[in-house]
Structures are given as C-alpha cells and as structure tokens.
Design goal:
By secondary structure, the protein is of the alpha/beta class. It folds into two domains: about 140 residues, Rossmann fold, CATH 3.40.50; about 190 residues, Dihydrodipicolinate Reductase, domain 2, CATH 3.30.360. The protein contains eight helices and 14 strands. The strands form two sheets. The protein has a seven-stranded mixed beta sheet with strand order 3-4-2-1-5-6-7, with helices on both faces. The protein has a seven-stranded mixed beta sheet with strand order 9-10-8-11-14-13-12. The longest helix is centred in the middle third of the chain and has 16 residues. It is globular. The termini are close together.
C-alpha cells in the first residue's frame, strides 16, 4: 500500500541516498515531502523525475505523513521526531538519539525484523559500523553462540557526511599541490593519514563510536552477556567501512563451516580468494547493498578451534545508513 513519506535531512549525504534507494527499490510513495534546515530553503531535489522544493523541518512538517525517514542529526531527531509521531507518522531515525531507549526497537532487518512490530512510533537505525559488522556475524552467532568479539574498524570519511568527503578530496588536492591541508571537518589531516575515530573519548578510554558498537550489538542480538571490545579508526577512503573481526565461539568451528553459513546469508557476499590474495576492498562495496566478507581463517591462538578471524567491508552510506532504514520502512508496509 502506497504511503506518504517525508525525508528529514534530505540535502545531506544520507538524505540523498534515501531518495536514490527509494527510487531504485520502487518504494510505493504516493507523495513525498523534502525537509531540511532553514539554510536549505530555496533548494530543490529530484525524485522519480519530479522536482520538489526543500521545506524547513519544523514541528508542523508532518501532517498527513505516514513514514518519516530521519537523517538530520541526533539533536534534531530529539526535537522533531516526537512531533512526527504525534502527527501520526512512524519515524525511522538514523541518528543515535533513540538507539538505546528501551522503548525503541533497534533494527537490522536481516537480524531482528520481528522487533519492528514493537515500535511506539519510532524505530532506530543502528550505527553504521554496528550494521556492517553484524550482518555477517549474526548467522554465525545463530549457529554457534559468539562469546566474545574483538573489532577493529577502518572507517571511511563518509561517516562524517558530505563535509568529510569534501575535506578528503580538497586536502588531497592541496597536498599534491604542495600546499598545507585545510582542516575544517576533522581536527587532523585525513588525506594520506589515519587517526583514532573523531568521537569523544569517555572516562573508560573508549570513544563514543566504540561504545556504540558494544551496546548496540548486545541490544540487537538480545544478548547482554556477549563480551565485545572495539578500536575505531578513521582512514582516507571516501565510502565503505572495513572491519577486522575476531570471534570466539561457544563450540568449535572451522573456516569452511563459516563459509558455508555465510554463502547464502541475507545481505552477505563472499570475496575470499586465498590463492590470489583477493579479499574485500572499499571499491568492491561502494554503492552496493551487501556486506562483503573474506580472510576467513582460524584464530590459532585460541584452543579447540573456537575462534575465527573475518575481514568485512560495507558501504557506510548505503547499508550502513540509508538502505537499512529503507528496508525497515519496507517491513512497515
């Protein structure tokens, strides 16, 4: 059944990806409303060959709206999502504002679609790194419970939005022209450099991004006892996060068993060619729906064949954000 749809934050990188994916997947939208901050007034966006004016996001923006896709930032989600719900819309929110709220489902459709029906007007989209890690980890966890996850992320600048991607491009030009790189979005030079993820570091020494992965994975898996530790790093790649994941299981498991479990897992594609040293790269995942998995090997430091190493790669803007939200919206239909 066709729905009336609003996109909040439509002029941002994820907002634009919302429109692209809704069109590619032929989402049944009978009408669209394009929303952004006041500074975007006067802009126009195109969806299915129709040009729409960008309207200011306010508490009065949601009359008649049935589904509202939010990617406007956490503070704006907290400010305006309740108004959308009050007006009768179901909000799928891409920010961190509601993820750990016990009354808000946190959903990856390949993992816990049943949680959608528990919503009270708002459904939260997980963090991009959480999504990309857990689409392939979940089918393994179902078959053989994961006791511990050690995750190291290599995160693209797309995680910082269009401003992050622009800064990488501009700094690259500046450095190649023997100029000093201009740092606006990031505190440090990102071109030809890597640094610890640019989120606040808490009293335990972990940054916000790392703790998101810990808490969100436990909530999505309904497994508060799973042990998780993360190190999140920003790298000079436009889009597609990569992650090195070490999994310790309850029972023994072999690389061949892992490959067999992932071969037909929803949202997963294997690139695991050891003969040619060919494994997932950001250029494989860019603008693709699936999470790519390779470098599947036994962790020989753990006895009884109870640990496995994986390398995963997924498009941060797509499956890590916009696609996951649209898949949730499709489930709402």
């Amino acid at each position: 059944m066709a729905k009336t749809v609003a996109v909040a934050g439509v002029t941002g990188a994820v907002g634009q990806e919302f429109l692209k994916i809704l069109e590619q997947r032929d989402f049944p939208a009978k009408s669209m409303k394009m929303l952004a901050s006041a500074r975007s007034l006067g802009k126009k966006v195109t969806f299915k060959d129709t040009e729409y004016p960008v309207e200011e996001l306010t508490e009065n923006s949601f009359d008649g709206i049935e589904i509202a896709l939010f990617s406007a930032g956490g503070s704006r989600s907290k400010q305006f999502a309740p108004a959308a719900v009050k007006a009768g819309a179901v909000v799928v929110d891409n920010s961190s504002a509601f993820r750990m709220d016990p009354d808000v489902p946190l959903v990856i459709p390949e993992i816990n679609p049943e949680a959608i029906k528990e919503h009270k007007g708002i459904i939260a989209n997980p963090n991009c790194s959480t999504i990309i890690a857990n689409v392939p980890v979940w089918p393994l966890h179902k078959a053989n419970p994961v006791k511990r996850m050690i995750v190291s992320t290599y995160q693209a600048v797309s995680g910082a939005g269009q401003a992050g991607m622009t800064e990488l491009a501009e700094q690259t030009k500046e450095i190649l022209a023997d100029k000093e790189p201009t740092c606006n979005k990031f505190k440090y030079q990102i071109a030809f450099n890597i640094f610890s993820h640019d989120s606040d570091i808490g009293p335990n020494g972990y940054n916000t991004e790392e703790m998101k992965m810990v808490h969100e994975t436990r909530k999505i898996f309904s497994c508060p006892e799973i042990a998780i530790t993360c190190t999140c790093i920003r790298i000079p790649v436009m889009r597609c996060h990569c992650e090195s994941i070490n999994l310790e299981f309850k029972d023994s498991i072999t690389p061949d068993e892992v490959r067999k479990l992932l071969e037909h897992a929803p949202g997963v594609s294997l690139i695991d060619d050891t003969e040619n040293n060919r494994f997932p790269m950001p250029i494989d995942g860019t603008d693709r729906d699936d999470v790519y998995v390779g470098r599947i090997r036994q962790d020989e430091s753990v006895p009884d064949n109870k640990a496995i190493n994986l390398w995963v790669c997924g498009d941060q803007i797509r499956k890590g954000a916009a696609l996951n939200a649209v898949q949730i919206a499709e489930k709402l239909l």
